[in-house]
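Holo prediction. Input below; ligand is pyridoxal-5'-phosphate.
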Amino acid sequence: MSARPSPGLPAIVLDRKGATPLYRQIYESYRTAILDRRLRAGQRMPSTRALADELGLSRIPVLNAFEQLIAEGYLEARTGAGTYVSESLPLRERAEIPRRGADHTVGATVKNRHVARVVEVLPASQPWLRGVGAFAIGHAAIDHFPYAAWSRLLSRHAHRLTARQLRYGPVLGYEPFREAVAAYLRTTRAMHCEASQIMVVSGSQQALTICAHALIDPRDEVWTEDPGYHGARSALDLVGAKIVPVPVDEEGLDVAAGIARAPRARAALVTPSHQYPLGATMTASRRLQLLNWARSRGAWIIEDDYDSEYRYESLPVGALQGLDRDGRVLYIGTFSKVLFPSLRLGYIVIPKDLVEKFMNVRRAMDICPPTFLQAVLTDFLREGHFALHIRRMRRRYRERRSALVDAIREMLGEEFEILGEQAGMHLVVSLPAGLNDRDVARAASERELWTMPLSWCYARPSKRQGLVLGYGGSNVAQIRAGVKRLSEVIRALRLV
Ligand SMILES: Cc1ncc(COP(=O)(O)O)c(C=O)c1O
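Structure of the complex:
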């Protein structure tokens, strides 16, 4: 039950049938209100008798709560003058909703400079990160996951659990799993790799963090794609890298622009199979330019191959790693998109002479990956479930992609250009002149539709305005309903 507050006092909610004693509920409500500064220093509290009346309680629990608050210094009793919120509490000002820009971020209050930048992606400051919905990015079609096959394998392994599986596993990961992954990469991604080069990780994000720790020193320059994946920039921020945003065009990363901006960069972070978020495939000529630059400068290329299995108009393109003859490429793959993201399994393919170094970084982070799910997934791969699943999902995602493209054409019209629809699980729709992508995303989020503004993916200010729309996790009806709502949001904004 919620009590009507005395003027100026926050309402408190009491659960009269709950296990927590009433005095404790009153104490906690007021303590939280004081810490949140909803009750201000010096504010007068009602008398315990008046409050007990208002709450419809006997005076005892209110007295007990006030005594506790006074004992802990949240309230102070002034003899003959009543009870007040303590004036001496060292409360910080309430954090404002952070805006973009150096001094206004939540991150600016964090001491460590690198971490301060990372914190900037908090959902509090970006309304489009507050929920998931029809256009969630990176969500797999878990409604079509082969639950029965997966459960069978899980229970098979649970029944055969051995002591070995419960001990610390190898730093690089479970050997049979790494063998299965290496075989998969050689055949489907045209890669040169052995199991001894594969490190199992908890997804691409951990892979990026490990690569950053192993390869980058504070203030080292690193090329990142602009626009690009904010999670990759965060991983680099964590180690204090100096990010050099390099523009992207329809051929992928503009290598010449990177060389002009930072010829001696330590590394380049790229998504060559399916540029995130614009969707370009890096051309062979750009791939070779990038490899030549890395060889001549002794730089590293970190290849984030996060969803290359899904291409709709052609076969998957080979990995950049497969062209590398000089051991300059660190290849990152993940099962988040092809299976499901909470699996938290991915891998890094490491050039042979760096494996030891990566193992040392890994030991410092979490020692080794958990063994059980690697064993389950090994059988899932070996017994053909994985290949079958990918074939089925390719059809499913193509259908969802087409539904989204058709709905955009039909409900938004030709002036909204579609980019990057040939592959993956998201596309970009550019907004015509006069529409600001953050305004659209903000207005859409007020209608429970979360869409990522393209401008947010840029490290440098960009005039290009668009929305990144995921479609993997939504069925055709949800996609159509989402586009309809988006068209209403846009129409309303245009009328203003
Ligand atoms: C480009 C890119 N890289 C990495 C990741 C992180 O994926 P994971 O779940 O494997 O950590 C994502 C997730 O959406 C992504 O879009």
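The domain at 127-138+390-495 is CATH 3.90.1150.10 (Aspartate Aminotransferase, domain 1). That is the main takeaway for now.
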